[in-house]
Amino acid sequence: MLFAGTAAQAADASAKRIMIFGDSNTWGYIPVESGTTTRYPEDVRWPGVLRAALGSGYEVVDEGLSARTTDLPDLTLPHISGAGLDGSAYLPAAIATHLPLDLVVIMLGTNDLKKMFDRSPLRIALGVGKLVDIVAQVKGGVGTSYAPPKVLVLCPPPLGTVAPPERAERFAGGLEKSKALPAYYEAIAKAANAEFLDVGKLTATDGVDGIHLSAAAHKAIGTGVADKVKAILK
Hints:
Layout: H1 2-14, E1 16-22, H2 24-27, H3 46-54, E2 58-64, H4 87-98, E3 103-107, H5 121-138, E4 150-155, H6 165-170, H7 174-191, E5 195-198, H8 215-233
Parallel strand pairs: 1-2, 1-3, 3-4, 4-5
Helix pairs in contact: 3-8, 4-5, 5-7
């Protein structure tokens, strides 16, 4: 029994560890026209699809939070305390929590499109660049000496037709900005020595609310990202 336990620990130690850092489209928010919603099952959410597609030899950790931004506080949702919805405030602890990590996958920026933030596509991309820089700086966490993980930047797909009207007002001007994001994200990723994938080439934002993803879109993302992850960690 001791040998079996040691062998299992050795197998776990050899697995490639990946952390997915995102917002509601990583968390698995089911699109609805209005009101509250629930979450897709684990095997439907794109991190779960990724997990299944990668198979043995990989471990995938989900870190998705609805309404998370790249590096902005959102005081309109005060019930989320601590680091709140600011991705840059929470990311260092998230990395340290899940070390060792071979790869951090970041898909954020959709919530930065909200009208109240008044951000340009470049400024949103710079927020993502700040997150990439944080990954490089965290290093070994608390009392450890792990090397910084690699980073894969995912550009979210452009917004769809946002509905209902009150939500459309919240994201006014966001569609045009979201279409401009891939070029900026790619340039920032290249400058930061990170990998890049345009998720808009895998799927559209096809949920009824124009912001969130269908189950089919989750499947397309999980499968497409799996191919990219395998190439990075081969």
